[in-house]
Amino acid sequence: MLGRFFKRDEPLDGDTQIVDLRYDRILLGATMILMGIGVVMVYSASVVTAKNETTFLYKQITYCAFAFVAMGVLANLHHSIIKRFAWPLFIGAFILLSCVLVPGLAIEAKGAVRWIGHGSIRFQPSEAIKLGWIILLAAFLSERQDQLHRWKRSWMTPTIIVGIISALLLIQKDLGSTVICVGLLILMIFAAGAQVRHLVAAVGAGILAICGFILLEPYRVRRLMSFLEPERYRQGDAWQLYQALIGFGSGDWTGLGLGLSNQKMAFLPEAHTDFIFSILGEELGLVGVAVVVCLFAVFAWRGFHIARRANTVFGALLAYGLTALICFQAIANMAVATGMLPTKGLTLPFISYGGSSMVIMGVAVGILLNISKREPPPEWLHGWVIDRAPVSEDPEPSAEGAQ
């Protein structure tokens, strides 16, 4: 079974393998432009609330530098190595997520305990668990291409694991990351080629579970009500959403001008993190919003294109999952800022302030760039590689994938 997102090139003669050793320059360009916009907008959005007007600017530049280093390393590290360490990477991320429950390591902020660290050095493990979860799913599903029609073989183990992850995330009051992890499971099994009836059942169960999670917490119910009636709750739970919408309305077509936002003057909380998209809309207008949306659309186009042209099943699933993570989180953040989804604490990839998200996204892009090269594993790695290229169901002979 090839799955829904794999594409085989034209058959080649003999054992000849055509290899494109160049990175996907369009994907890299879109990422760099988004990071550049992020640095400018973080500086603009935080200049009022920061103790020093350049504090967040310098930190964001530092985070981008770390992200570029991670991107460069992963872009030149063959992704087959990542498959060999899928379980250790996931277990490491899971241990970090569990450390949030350890007194002394955990850091509480605004009623939620989602960070570990000491003093100003913080890390959000939920960002790492998303990446580890995608790698584990890609490795697991790539080895079960012929068993995806059997629920126990394809769904049971990932379902148990995502249930444990969700429990830890919900203890941290992080419903947004929980939804992303469950959504990634459904999307990646769909991409791998699971049966539609299994997918429909999973989506239905996921919706019921989300509804249950919302009803179990009074603050989530209040957020839902404020989302449905923001005008009524504008002095309470809908304050952020209401101020964000004012920002978009003030921006009109071309915006008030870079640095001239009124909402960042302590009206809109989290102006440089969760709601930076609203500040961007206020200062740069619909034109600026359209540019960012188009850049994410380009990123999605190139990411899924890389997945379709990958020369191994694992590479294809990994590229699909990483692209889905970044684009899904971007859509969710923009939807929250524009009032199309209830308020959730999800950053806008590459643009929102934050080191954990920026570095993990840099790692994700680096892996995508490596897969885009379609480079066979180096000779010293041949004994480790156990993944095969997608095999065509066409009776005609096809090129043999990387071994």
Notes on the structure:
The chain has 403 residues and is mainly α. The protein has one domain (31-378). Helices cover 60% and strands 3% of the residues. It has helices at 25-46, 55-75, 79-84, 86-99, 125-142, 151-171, 175-192, 196-216, 218-228, 239-251, 276-309, 313-337, 355-372; strands at 106-109, 112-118, 121-123. Strands 1-2-3 form a 3-stranded antiparallel beta sheet, with helices on one face. Helix 7 runs antiparallel to helix 12 (313-337). The longest helix has 34 residues, at 276-309. The radius of gyration is 22 Å and the shape is globular. Residues 8-16 and 388-403 have low confidence and may be disordered.
What key phrases describe this protein's structure?
mainly alpha; 3% strand; disordered C terminus
Summarize the structure.
The protein is mostly helical.
What overall geometry do the principal axes of the alpha carbons give? globular
As an assembly, this protein is single chain
Uncertain spans:
8-16, 388-403
For the biggest β-sheet, the strand order reads 1-2-3
**What structural category do the secondary elements indicate?**
mainly alpha
The rounded Rg comes to 22 Å
How many H/I helices?
13
